[in-house]
Amino acid sequence: MDLFEKCKGFYSDPAVAQKYGYPTNPRTAQAMGLFPFFIPIDRAEGPEAYIHGKKYIMIGSNNYDGLTNHPKVKEAAIEAVRKYGTSCTGSRFLNGTLDLHIELEGRLAKYVGKEAALVFSTGFQVNLGSIPAIMDRDDIIITDKEVHASIIDGVRMAKSLKNVTVRTYKHNNPADLESVLKALPAGPAKLVIVDGVFSMGGDIAKLSEIIPLCKKYGARFMSDDAHAIGVLGRGRGTGWHFGLQDDVDLVMGTFSKSLASVGGFIAGPKEAVHFIQMFARPFMFSASLPPSNVATVLACLDILEAEPERVERVNKIADRVRTELRGMGYNIGASQTPIIPIVIGDAMKTLEAWNVFFQAGIYTNVALPPSVPPEFSCLRTSYMATHTDEQVDKVLEVFKKVKPLVQIAA
Ligand SMILES: Cc1ncc(COP(=O)(O)O)c(C=O)c1O
After folding, report:
1. Residue 121 lies in a domain
2. Number of domains making up the chain
3. Full-prediction pTM beyond 0.85?
4. Pocket flag, ligand 1, residue 380 (CB < 6 Å)
5. Quick one: which of 49, 101, 228, 232 could link to 241 by a disulfide (CB 3.0–4.6 Å)?
6. Is 274 labeled as catalytic in the residue annotation?
Protein backbone atom coordinates (compact mmCIF):
# COMPACT_ATOMS: atom_id res chain seq x y z
CA MET A 1 0.00 0.00 0.00
CA ASP A 2 1.19 3.53 -0.75
CA LEU A 3 2.40 5.55 2.22
CA PHE A 4 -0.26 8.24 1.77
CA GLU A 5 -3.21 5.86 1.28
CA LYS A 6 -4.21 6.04 4.95
CA CYS A 7 -4.11 9.85 4.82
CA LYS A 8 -6.58 9.87 1.94
CA GLY A 9 -8.78 7.48 3.91
CA PHE A 10 -8.68 9.68 7.00
CA TYR A 11 -9.57 12.66 4.82
CA SER A 12 -12.43 11.23 2.85
CA ASP A 13 -13.46 7.64 3.64
CA PRO A 14 -16.90 7.56 5.38
CA ALA A 15 -15.94 4.27 7.06
CA VAL A 16 -13.08 6.03 8.82
CA ALA A 17 -15.42 8.81 9.96
CA GLN A 18 -17.74 6.14 11.32
CA LYS A 19 -14.89 4.57 13.28
CA TYR A 20 -14.07 7.91 14.93
CA GLY A 21 -17.75 8.80 15.47
CA TYR A 22 -17.51 12.23 13.83
CA PRO A 23 -16.69 13.64 10.37
CA THR A 24 -12.92 13.45 9.86
CA ASN A 25 -13.01 15.41 6.60
CA PRO A 26 -12.46 19.02 7.67
CA ARG A 27 -14.56 20.44 4.81
CA THR A 28 -17.56 18.22 5.60
CA ALA A 29 -17.22 19.03 9.28
CA GLN A 30 -16.90 22.76 8.61
CA ALA A 31 -19.96 22.73 6.33
CA MET A 32 -21.91 21.08 9.15
CA GLY A 33 -20.63 23.69 11.65
CA LEU A 34 -18.87 20.89 13.48
CA PHE A 35 -15.17 21.62 13.15
CA PRO A 36 -13.98 23.27 16.35
CA PHE A 37 -10.28 22.90 15.60
CA PHE A 38 -7.69 25.33 14.17
CA ILE A 39 -10.13 28.27 14.20
CA PRO A 40 -7.98 31.34 13.50
CA ILE A 41 -8.38 34.01 16.18
CA ASP A 42 -7.86 37.49 14.72
CA ARG A 43 -7.35 39.30 18.04
CA ALA A 44 -6.98 38.05 21.59
CA GLU A 45 -7.46 40.09 24.70
CA GLY A 46 -7.30 37.45 27.42
CA PRO A 47 -10.91 36.79 28.41
CA GLU A 48 -12.14 37.83 24.97
CA ALA A 49 -11.23 36.67 21.49
CA TYR A 50 -12.28 37.92 18.08
CA ILE A 51 -12.99 35.55 15.21
CA HIS A 52 -13.86 37.07 11.82
CA GLY A 53 -14.43 40.31 13.75
CA LYS A 54 -17.01 38.77 16.11
CA LYS A 55 -16.34 38.94 19.85
CA TYR A 56 -16.38 35.73 21.90
CA ILE A 57 -15.98 35.22 25.61
CA MET A 58 -12.95 32.95 25.86
CA ILE A 59 -13.51 29.99 28.17
CA GLY A 60 -11.08 27.74 26.35
CA SER A 61 -7.72 29.09 27.47
CA ASN A 62 -5.18 27.95 30.07
CA ASN A 63 -4.29 31.58 30.80
CA TYR A 64 -5.50 31.02 34.38
CA ASP A 65 -4.03 34.16 35.94
CA GLY A 66 -4.79 36.30 32.90
CA LEU A 67 -1.18 37.33 32.36
CA THR A 68 -0.76 37.00 28.58
CA ASN A 69 -1.77 40.61 28.02
CA HIS A 70 -0.33 42.13 31.19
CA PRO A 71 1.63 45.29 30.22
CA LYS A 72 4.65 44.32 32.38
CA VAL A 73 4.76 40.85 30.84
CA LYS A 74 4.58 42.18 27.29
CA GLU A 75 7.20 44.83 28.06
CA ALA A 76 9.56 42.18 29.51
CA ALA A 77 9.29 40.14 26.30
CA ILE A 78 9.95 43.19 24.12
CA GLU A 79 12.90 44.28 26.27
CA ALA A 80 14.43 40.78 26.01
CA VAL A 81 14.16 40.87 22.23
CA ARG A 82 15.90 44.26 22.25
CA LYS A 83 18.74 42.94 24.42
CA TYR A 84 19.21 39.34 23.19
CA GLY A 85 17.43 39.18 19.81
CA THR A 86 14.69 36.75 18.89
CA SER A 87 16.37 33.35 19.30
CA CYS A 88 19.38 31.59 20.77
CA THR A 89 19.72 29.43 17.62
CA GLY A 90 21.30 26.59 19.55
CA SER A 91 21.06 24.00 22.30
CA ARG A 92 21.45 24.90 25.97
CA PHE A 93 24.63 22.75 25.90
CA LEU A 94 26.25 24.98 23.32
CA ASN A 95 25.52 28.62 22.55
CA GLY A 96 21.92 28.48 23.83
CA THR A 97 22.34 29.30 27.53
CA LEU A 98 21.74 32.91 28.52
CA ASP A 99 22.15 34.49 31.92
CA LEU A 100 18.34 34.79 31.72
CA HIS A 101 17.91 30.97 31.62
CA ILE A 102 20.06 30.61 34.72
CA GLU A 103 18.16 33.38 36.49
CA LEU A 104 14.84 31.74 35.63
CA GLU A 105 16.01 28.33 36.86
CA GLY A 106 16.96 29.88 40.21
CA ARG A 107 13.64 31.70 40.48
CA LEU A 108 11.60 28.61 39.60
CA ALA A 109 13.44 26.40 42.08
CA LYS A 110 12.72 28.94 44.80
CA TYR A 111 9.11 29.41 43.71
CA VAL A 112 8.24 25.71 43.90
CA GLY A 113 10.51 25.09 46.92
CA LYS A 114 13.06 22.73 45.36
CA GLU A 115 16.84 22.75 45.29
CA ALA A 116 17.21 23.14 41.52
CA ALA A 117 15.23 23.55 38.32
CA LEU A 118 15.95 23.04 34.64
CA VAL A 119 14.20 24.89 31.82
CA PHE A 120 13.15 23.07 28.63
CA SER A 121 11.77 24.56 25.41
CA THR A 122 8.30 23.01 25.83
CA GLY A 123 6.41 21.34 28.65
CA PHE A 124 5.96 18.26 26.46
CA GLN A 125 9.74 17.95 26.15
CA VAL A 126 10.12 18.07 29.93
CA ASN A 127 8.20 14.81 30.30
CA LEU A 128 9.52 13.29 27.09
CA GLY A 129 13.11 13.93 28.22
CA SER A 130 13.17 13.81 32.02
CA ILE A 131 11.32 10.52 32.50
CA PRO A 132 13.61 8.33 30.36
CA ALA A 133 16.68 10.23 31.59
CA ILE A 134 16.05 9.60 35.28
CA MET A 135 15.02 5.93 34.94
CA ASP A 136 17.60 3.17 34.83
CA ARG A 137 17.42 -0.20 33.06
CA ASP A 138 14.62 -2.45 34.36
CA ASP A 139 13.25 0.20 36.75
CA ILE A 140 9.48 0.52 37.21
CA ILE A 141 7.13 3.42 36.40
CA ILE A 142 3.61 3.55 37.80
CA THR A 143 1.18 6.17 36.46
CA ASP A 144 -2.43 7.16 36.91
CA LYS A 145 -4.43 5.91 33.88
CA GLU A 146 -5.36 9.47 32.86
CA VAL A 147 -1.99 11.24 32.82
CA HIS A 148 -1.16 13.67 30.03
CA ALA A 149 0.02 12.46 26.62
CA SER A 150 3.51 13.87 27.27
CA ILE A 151 3.90 11.60 30.31
CA ILE A 152 2.60 8.65 28.32
CA ASP A 153 5.16 9.34 25.60
CA GLY A 154 7.96 9.92 28.14
CA VAL A 155 7.10 6.56 29.68
CA ARG A 156 7.03 4.89 26.25
CA MET A 157 10.46 6.34 25.57
CA ALA A 158 11.73 5.02 28.92
CA LYS A 159 10.33 1.62 28.02
CA SER A 160 12.04 1.60 24.67
CA LEU A 161 15.40 3.00 25.88
CA LYS A 162 15.66 1.44 29.34
CA ASN A 163 13.31 -1.53 29.24
CA VAL A 164 11.38 -0.14 32.21
CA THR A 165 8.29 -1.98 33.40
CA VAL A 166 5.15 0.14 33.22
CA ARG A 167 2.09 -0.21 35.42
CA THR A 168 -1.02 1.98 35.59
CA TYR A 169 -3.68 2.35 38.26
CA LYS A 170 -7.33 3.40 38.11
CA HIS A 171 -7.81 7.13 37.84
CA ASN A 172 -7.11 8.92 41.12
CA ASN A 173 -7.69 5.71 43.03
CA PRO A 174 -5.11 5.27 45.83
CA ALA A 175 -6.51 1.83 46.76
CA ASP A 176 -5.77 0.58 43.26
CA LEU A 177 -2.34 2.24 43.37
CA GLU A 178 -1.62 0.30 46.54
CA SER A 179 -2.62 -3.00 44.96
CA VAL A 180 -0.26 -2.24 42.06
CA LEU A 181 2.62 -1.20 44.35
CA LYS A 182 2.14 -4.22 46.61
CA ALA A 183 2.57 -6.63 43.69
CA LEU A 184 5.90 -5.14 42.51
CA PRO A 185 9.30 -6.70 43.25
CA ALA A 186 11.32 -4.91 45.94
CA GLY A 187 14.58 -4.53 43.96
CA PRO A 188 14.09 -2.08 41.08
CA ALA A 189 13.76 1.69 41.60
CA LYS A 190 10.18 2.93 41.24
CA LEU A 191 8.63 6.22 40.17
CA VAL A 192 4.94 7.11 40.55
CA ILE A 193 3.79 9.90 38.19
CA VAL A 194 0.53 11.88 38.26
CA ASP A 195 -0.94 15.06 36.80
CA GLY A 196 -1.24 17.24 39.93
CA VAL A 197 -4.33 18.71 38.28
CA PHE A 198 -5.71 16.41 35.59
CA SER A 199 -5.71 18.33 32.35
CA MET A 200 -9.10 17.19 31.07
CA GLY A 201 -11.14 16.45 34.20
CA GLY A 202 -9.80 19.31 36.34
CA ASP A 203 -9.65 17.07 39.42
CA ILE A 204 -6.71 17.13 41.82
CA ALA A 205 -4.47 14.08 42.38
CA LYS A 206 -4.97 12.77 45.92
CA LEU A 207 -1.45 13.48 47.12
CA SER A 208 -2.35 13.09 50.79
CA GLU A 209 -3.06 9.40 50.10
CA ILE A 210 -0.66 8.79 47.21
CA ILE A 211 2.50 10.13 48.88
CA PRO A 212 2.25 7.93 52.00
CA LEU A 213 1.85 4.91 49.68
CA CYS A 214 4.97 5.91 47.75
CA LYS A 215 6.87 6.11 51.03
CA LYS A 216 5.47 2.79 52.26
CA TYR A 217 6.51 0.95 49.09
CA GLY A 218 9.79 2.81 48.47
CA ALA A 219 8.76 4.69 45.31
CA ARG A 220 9.76 8.23 44.30
CA PHE A 221 6.91 10.59 43.39
CA MET A 222 6.59 13.07 40.50
CA SER A 223 3.80 15.60 39.98
CA ASP A 224 3.10 17.23 36.62
CA ASP A 225 1.98 20.65 37.79
CA ALA A 226 1.24 22.07 34.31
CA HIS A 227 -2.24 23.11 35.45
CA ALA A 228 -1.42 23.56 39.15
CA ILE A 229 1.20 26.31 38.90
CA GLY A 230 -0.64 29.62 39.23
CA VAL A 231 -3.75 27.81 40.46
CA LEU A 232 -3.12 25.64 43.54
CA GLY A 233 -1.10 26.18 46.70
CA ARG A 234 -1.06 29.99 46.33
CA GLY A 235 0.16 29.40 42.80
CA ARG A 236 3.08 27.17 43.78
CA GLY A 237 1.54 23.85 42.88
CA THR A 238 -0.13 20.68 44.06
CA GLY A 239 2.38 19.74 46.78
CA TRP A 240 1.89 23.17 48.37
CA HIS A 241 -1.88 22.76 48.18
CA PHE A 242 -1.57 19.66 50.38
CA GLY A 243 1.27 21.01 52.55
CA LEU A 244 3.40 18.15 51.19
CA GLN A 245 5.78 19.82 48.80
CA ASP A 246 8.88 18.42 50.55
CA ASP A 247 7.59 14.93 49.75
CA VAL A 248 7.15 15.60 46.04
CA ASP A 249 10.47 14.35 44.65
CA LEU A 250 10.15 15.82 41.17
CA VAL A 251 7.88 18.63 40.02
CA MET A 252 7.35 19.51 36.39
CA GLY A 253 5.60 22.64 35.21
CA THR A 254 4.82 24.37 31.95
CA PHE A 255 5.04 28.01 30.95
CA SER A 256 2.24 27.66 28.41
CA LYS A 257 -0.57 28.11 30.89
CA SER A 258 -0.48 30.43 33.94
CA LEU A 259 3.01 31.63 33.04
CA ALA A 260 1.85 33.17 29.76
CA SER A 261 4.68 31.85 27.60
CA VAL A 262 5.85 28.57 26.16
CA GLY A 263 8.37 26.11 27.64
CA GLY A 264 8.57 24.11 30.83
CA PHE A 265 10.73 22.98 33.73
CA ILE A 266 11.62 20.09 35.98
CA ALA A 267 12.56 20.77 39.61
CA GLY A 268 13.93 18.57 42.38
CA PRO A 269 17.16 17.69 44.21
CA LYS A 270 20.21 19.30 42.58
CA GLU A 271 21.85 15.97 41.70
CA ALA A 272 18.71 14.65 40.01
CA VAL A 273 18.22 17.86 38.04
CA HIS A 274 21.88 17.82 36.97
CA PHE A 275 21.52 14.20 35.87
CA ILE A 276 18.49 15.09 33.75
CA GLN A 277 20.42 18.05 32.34
CA MET A 278 23.18 15.71 31.18
CA PHE A 279 20.98 12.90 29.82
CA ALA A 280 17.62 14.26 28.59
CA ARG A 281 17.80 14.11 24.81
CA PRO A 282 14.98 16.61 24.06
CA PHE A 283 16.88 19.08 26.28
CA MET A 284 20.22 18.34 24.68
CA PHE A 285 19.28 18.15 21.01
CA SER A 286 16.77 20.97 20.70
CA ALA A 287 17.25 24.73 20.59
CA SER A 288 16.88 26.57 23.89
CA LEU A 289 13.89 28.63 24.97
CA PRO A 290 13.95 32.05 23.21
CA PRO A 291 14.85 35.04 25.40
CA SER A 292 11.44 36.71 25.13
CA ASN A 293 9.76 33.55 26.45
CA VAL A 294 12.20 33.35 29.37
CA ALA A 295 11.70 37.02 30.25
CA THR A 296 7.92 36.56 30.08
CA VAL A 297 8.04 33.84 32.73
CA LEU A 298 10.27 35.93 35.01
CA ALA A 299 7.79 38.82 34.76
CA CYS A 300 4.88 36.47 35.50
CA LEU A 301 6.62 35.15 38.64
CA ASP A 302 7.11 38.75 39.82
CA ILE A 303 3.41 39.43 39.34
CA LEU A 304 2.23 36.20 40.96
CA GLU A 305 4.41 36.91 44.00
CA ALA A 306 3.19 40.51 44.25
CA GLU A 307 -0.48 39.82 43.48
CA PRO A 308 -1.61 36.57 45.16
CA GLU A 309 -5.19 37.78 44.71
CA ARG A 310 -5.04 36.64 41.07
CA VAL A 311 -4.82 33.02 42.18
CA GLU A 312 -7.66 33.57 44.66
CA ARG A 313 -9.77 35.23 41.98
CA VAL A 314 -9.49 32.43 39.40
CA ASN A 315 -10.42 29.87 42.04
CA LYS A 316 -13.35 31.98 43.24
CA ILE A 317 -14.70 32.23 39.69
CA ALA A 318 -14.23 28.51 39.18
CA ASP A 319 -16.03 27.69 42.47
CA ARG A 320 -18.99 29.81 41.36
CA VAL A 321 -19.13 28.30 37.87
CA ARG A 322 -18.90 24.73 39.19
CA THR A 323 -21.68 25.33 41.73
CA GLU A 324 -23.99 26.98 39.21
CA LEU A 325 -23.37 24.44 36.44
CA ARG A 326 -24.01 21.55 38.81
CA GLY A 327 -27.17 23.36 39.93
CA MET A 328 -28.33 23.58 36.30
CA GLY A 329 -27.84 19.84 35.96
CA TYR A 330 -24.69 19.79 33.85
CA ASN A 331 -22.36 16.85 34.27
CA ILE A 332 -18.98 18.42 35.11
CA GLY A 333 -17.31 15.23 36.29
CA ALA A 334 -15.04 15.49 39.33
CA SER A 335 -13.71 19.01 38.58
CA GLN A 336 -12.19 20.87 41.56
CA THR A 337 -10.25 23.57 39.69
CA PRO A 338 -10.66 26.18 36.91
CA ILE A 339 -10.73 23.32 34.38
CA ILE A 340 -14.42 22.46 34.14
CA PRO A 341 -15.46 19.85 31.57
CA ILE A 342 -19.05 19.63 30.34
CA VAL A 343 -19.29 15.90 29.87
CA ILE A 344 -21.60 14.87 27.02
CA GLY A 345 -20.29 11.42 26.27
CA ASP A 346 -20.90 11.15 22.53
CA ALA A 347 -18.60 12.68 19.93
CA MET A 348 -21.26 14.00 17.53
CA LYS A 349 -23.44 15.34 20.31
CA THR A 350 -20.43 17.07 21.83
CA LEU A 351 -19.68 18.77 18.51
CA GLU A 352 -23.33 19.85 18.23
CA ALA A 353 -23.21 21.27 21.74
CA TRP A 354 -19.97 23.09 20.94
CA ASN A 355 -21.70 24.75 17.98
CA VAL A 356 -24.59 25.88 20.17
CA PHE A 357 -22.15 27.66 22.50
CA PHE A 358 -20.10 29.03 19.63
CA GLN A 359 -23.17 30.54 17.96
CA ALA A 360 -24.01 32.12 21.31
CA GLY A 361 -20.60 33.87 21.43
CA ILE A 362 -18.83 31.50 23.84
CA TYR A 363 -15.50 29.96 22.82
CA THR A 364 -14.97 26.53 24.40
CA ASN A 365 -12.64 23.67 23.61
CA VAL A 366 -13.73 20.20 22.60
CA ALA A 367 -12.15 16.93 23.73
CA LEU A 368 -12.97 13.90 21.60
CA PRO A 369 -11.67 10.33 21.37
CA PRO A 370 -8.91 9.25 21.04
CA SER A 371 -7.62 12.09 23.28
CA VAL A 372 -10.26 11.14 25.89
CA PRO A 373 -12.17 7.88 26.48
CA PRO A 374 -15.36 7.83 24.28
CA GLU A 375 -17.65 8.16 27.31
CA PHE A 376 -15.79 11.34 28.32
CA SER A 377 -16.33 13.33 25.07
CA CYS A 378 -16.74 16.81 26.46
CA LEU A 379 -16.50 20.53 26.12
CA ARG A 380 -13.46 21.57 28.09
CA THR A 381 -14.07 24.95 29.66
CA SER A 382 -11.51 26.88 31.71
CA TYR A 383 -11.53 30.22 33.48
CA MET A 384 -9.14 33.06 34.18
CA ALA A 385 -8.62 35.61 36.94
CA THR A 386 -9.27 38.43 34.47
CA HIS A 387 -12.80 37.32 33.54
CA THR A 388 -15.08 40.07 34.84
CA ASP A 389 -18.13 39.21 36.92
CA GLU A 390 -20.23 40.43 33.99
CA GLN A 391 -18.47 38.01 31.63
CA VAL A 392 -19.04 35.14 34.03
CA ASP A 393 -22.71 36.20 34.37
CA LYS A 394 -23.03 36.16 30.58
CA VAL A 395 -21.39 32.72 30.30
CA LEU A 396 -23.71 31.30 32.95
CA GLU A 397 -26.72 32.94 31.28
CA VAL A 398 -25.81 31.23 28.02
CA PHE A 399 -25.29 27.91 29.82
CA LYS A 400 -28.77 28.26 31.30
CA LYS A 401 -30.38 29.28 28.02
CA VAL A 402 -28.84 26.51 25.95
CA LYS A 403 -29.29 23.78 28.55
CA PRO A 404 -32.41 22.36 26.81
CA LEU A 405 -30.55 22.34 23.49
CA VAL A 406 -27.49 20.71 25.00
CA GLN A 407 -29.77 18.27 26.75
CA ILE A 408 -31.31 17.38 23.40
CA ALA A 409 -27.78 17.00 22.09
CA ALA A 410 -26.87 14.96 25.15
C1 LIG B 1 -0.63 17.96 32.20
C2 LIG B 1 0.19 18.49 31.07
N3 LIG B 1 1.50 18.21 31.02
C4 LIG B 1 2.28 18.65 30.02
C5 LIG B 1 1.77 19.42 29.00
C6 LIG B 1 2.66 19.88 27.89
O7 LIG B 1 2.91 21.24 28.03
P8 LIG B 1 3.22 22.24 26.82
O9 LIG B 1 1.93 22.46 26.09
O10 LIG B 1 3.65 23.44 27.55
O11 LIG B 1 4.26 21.63 25.97
C12 LIG B 1 0.43 19.77 29.03
C13 LIG B 1 -0.13 20.60 27.94
O14 LIG B 1 -1.26 20.64 27.62
C15 LIG B 1 -0.40 19.29 30.07
O16 LIG B 1 -1.70 19.57 30.12
Report:
1. yes
2. 2
3. yes
4. no
5. 232
6. no
